[in-house]
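fyi for ur records
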Amino acid sequence: MIQPNLTYIQKLANGDKDFEQQLLAVIQKEFPTEKTLYFNLLKEKKYNELAELIHKIKHKFTILGLEKETILASNFEKDIKEQNFNLQEKFETILNTISDFLTTI
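which gave:
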């Protein structure tokens, strides 16, 4: 089960709650836009731009404690350049899980 968490952010912040909130605010602001852009680029078949966006998004997976999902995103980033969509459904499930998580914190 995919379970985003704040552990990495808390370690990085080392007790600085303001820093935690600032980092979360950036993620909460950027992620919805990036998710929308992902679906737009996919629809428009702009696969090189899509791979670049996946590369950017996967770092948020790491920040949200999703190590296995970061590996999946890396693989999908490579695959999408070859128009291989085998990991698309799993990747999109992760995107939706993160969206849900970000609305609850």
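The chain has one domain: 7-104. thats all i got for now
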